[in-house]
Amino acid sequence: MPEKQQGFIAKQVLYYNEHFNYKKITINDSVSSVFMDQLVKKLDPDQSLFTIADLKGFQKYRYSLDDDFRKGDLHAVFDIYNVYDQRFRTWINSSLSKLKTKPKGKAVSTAATQERKRFDDLLEQQNEQTSATVFQTIMDVFTRVIDPHTSYFNPAAVVSMDEQSSRTLDGIGAAMLSEDGMVKITDVLAGGPAFRSGQVNAGDRIIGVAQADGPFESIIGWKVEKALTLIKGPKGSTVRLKILRSGQPVTANAIIVTLIRDKIVLEQQSAKKTLKNITQDGKTYKIGVIYVPAFYVDVKAQLAGDPNYKSTTRDVKLIIDTLRNIDKADGIVIDLRGNGGGSLQEAIELTGLFIDKGPVVQMRYNNQKIAYGADTQAGMAWSGPLAVMVSPTSASASEIFSAAMQDYHRAIILGTQTYGKGTAQKGLDLNSVVPPDTLKTLLTLEQQKIPGFVLQLGELSLTYAKFYRITGNTTQLKGVMPDISFPSVYSPEETGERSYPSALKPDSIKAVAFEKFRDAPFNIELLNKLHQERIKKSYKFELLQLEIDNKKQNHISSHSMTDSKKTSSKSEQAYLAKINKIRMANGLRVLKSVQETENPKQDDYIMDEGARVLVDLISSDK
After folding, report:
1. With contact defined as beta carbons under 8 Å apart, do 310 and 296 qualify?
2. Which of 78, 172, 264, 507 is the most buried (most CB within 10 A)?
3. Could you report the per-residue pLDDT of 362-413, keeping only the tens digit for each?
4. Of the candidates 387, 295, 291, 391, the residue with the CA atom closest to the CA atom of residue 338
5. How far apart are CA 147 and CA 125, in angstroms?
6. What Rg, from alpha-carbon coordinates, does the chain have?
7. Three-class SS string for 54-88?
8. Dihedrals phi, psi of 422, to nearest 5 degrees
9. What confidence tens digit (pLDDT) does each residue in 221-258 have?
């Protein structure tokens, strides 16, 4: 059953989208119809659970869900979910019943045991669904119908987003996962409270948590997400953990470890560097590669005046200082592959490290007013040769940065057409727009008994603007086209903004005045010629092209009605034979299966080639 505050939240989400979303959408019968179809598809993507009678029964809701949301009534969408829940449980129990029926005189196969465990896990996951998780699923579908990047986040998701955007969290400094009904520590972060205690090790299992001198609460059987709500907490607060060492049975005596929570900096998810030595024409060039996983900033620490607050630009600036003064790098590659974006301001400030000053991005708001973000600080952290590596999953802030580098003729762009997200979102804390008296009316009897309790409604991430290049062109759907294209197994059409039916359409506005870093563009023709000559001789790129061709063939075969497991098996064997032919020609061992990998930590040959293209640029510019 839906909770009272959930209906209120749905009502607010509808209101703010109708009045403030860039799309200026009216939530009407048409939206209601699409929403219902998408919700059914989300719950039953294979169309294997809902019956024809179920689908007919849902038709009474087709054109009324918009009216329900406007009133804050969620009974219809929860009814659809409850029917799904019934069908799902019936399927699980039926499947388990068949597996538990063992033929006389025959042992239960390993495959059957594994299949039974899979169904047990699915049933356990379904049992853990709550009104809150169901509501989140419903709101995910509803907001996606409006546009791909408008989203509702519950309070727990908001905390997680803040941690990701700041690359910091307040906790004990340990990574965990759920395993066999226990919360297991998989890694202890160097320098954190758990590490400093000397009493917490990878492989340990946490079975109980207590706050300061309070009583222990058993977390056996809990998922790690739920357990973390007790383990994490404000910096300086005390948490006690009841721990079983690796291999100890549940009946063993647990040790108790007391820790003082601290701010944990997630270095593994921050910008980092590598140095590549590229030899060409008898000379060795040092190329620094700066991997930027996201455009992050610790806003809370920044606003609090912390001089050491964490951000992408600050981290990259420190890395550049090292590359220039200690490593004596000849050129730098900014690696944005897989970078889905983040802070718009960080994209502007990072651009400022590589240009003197000037406009970086234009913004058009839902009232059609246009503004632009600019680097106003004179000077550059790096004025030397520069390249930017992108991929189909480089999006949003990554596209702002790489587009600016391209428009200024500041860097050569390498890789594949980017994602194509040219919209900006702003987080709206729903508590900040709801009067306190209204919040009080949503409290349950239990919540009313808790002194000072404030109901958290979550956050609406609302699409409020489109951004444009300083040339006036858009990256929306189009993305950023590289100067030098690299082969990729990921198709921009499959992974990009173009795959969303509700995505905004591309358009353009007037350019703004800016001064290019260099008057003459790069000699792309020469650089591409040298690049193509190299990859034609590289067995690694030959294997990559083979993988791309095989993926395309499998995509075609999957749409063929005559395709079968037998045909698929033959195709895989033929693909494996082609792989091994290339490997044997280059003195490499033969693989036994397509799934087998030689070394999960093999060198990044794509980035190696990117570094070589930058060396070509350095040589040709002399």
Report:
1. yes
2. 172
3. 999 999 999 999 999 999 999 999 999 999 889 999 999 999 999 999 999 9
4. 391
5. 29
6. 28
7. HHHHHHHHCCCHHHHHHHCCCHHHHHHHHHHHHHH
8. -110, 35
9. 787 877 888 898 888 899 999 999 887 877 778 899 99
